[in-house]
């Protein structure tokens, strides 16, 4: 006799299954196109989202807007850190030749293709950073904590405060407004970030300086 617990295992509907298969097929086709065309490694989508790592890329328009804001906030010759915000990093790298430098702190080691600018980062160990990453050495830190929990935000906030000279641009859920103010002293902007795939949670941007996002 099968265990009664088996009844609790969620079954995917045939419609969901078909959609999933279609998604994976598209993914394989995109991978195939990339290898044949010599794709731009910095373009958004060159590394696919991994939902198991709670990754959701911004829409192209949102990534461009946030990258532009980061460059303006950093100023000429400024340094920008992207913490768990790879699609903004990729947009910044598309602006090759601009007068700023950028690095990406990310848990997903696929981003190590970006060489020395990639820094492995696990929010559970917020200050476990390379020695050459000096405190308060970035003009602006843009961060998108992977989970909508106070613990994740609090730990990511430690990293942000260690890295930034002062300016912070945080992207997280609207439900985190109170915690964002508490841990980072940031306020919600009018600008509403969008993702390439719609998320169930309302997303917002928060800053602690006079930004162009209002």
UniProtKB/TrEMBL annotation:
GO cellular component: cytoplasm
Domain of life from the UniProt record: Eukaryota
InterPro entries linked to this entry: DNA_methylase_N6_adenine_CS, Efm5/EEF1AKMT1, Mlase_EEF1AKMT1/ZCCHC4, SAM-dependent_MTases_sf
Compartments, record wording: Cytoplasm
MF (Gene Ontology): nucleic acid binding; protein-lysine N-methyltransferase activity
Gene Ontology biological process terms, A to Z: methylation
Keywords linked to the UniProt accession: Cytoplasm, Methyltransferase, Transferase
Catalysed reactions listed for this entry: L-lysyl-[protein] + 3 S-adenosyl-L-methionine = N(6),N(6),N(6)-trimethyl-L-lysyl-[protein] + 3 S-adenosyl-L-homocysteine + 3 H(+)
Keyword set includes Cell wall biogenesis/degradation: no
Primary location group: cytoplasm
The protein's name: EFMT1 methyltransferase
UniProt organism field: Mohoua ochrocephala
Gene that specifies this protein: Eef1akmt1
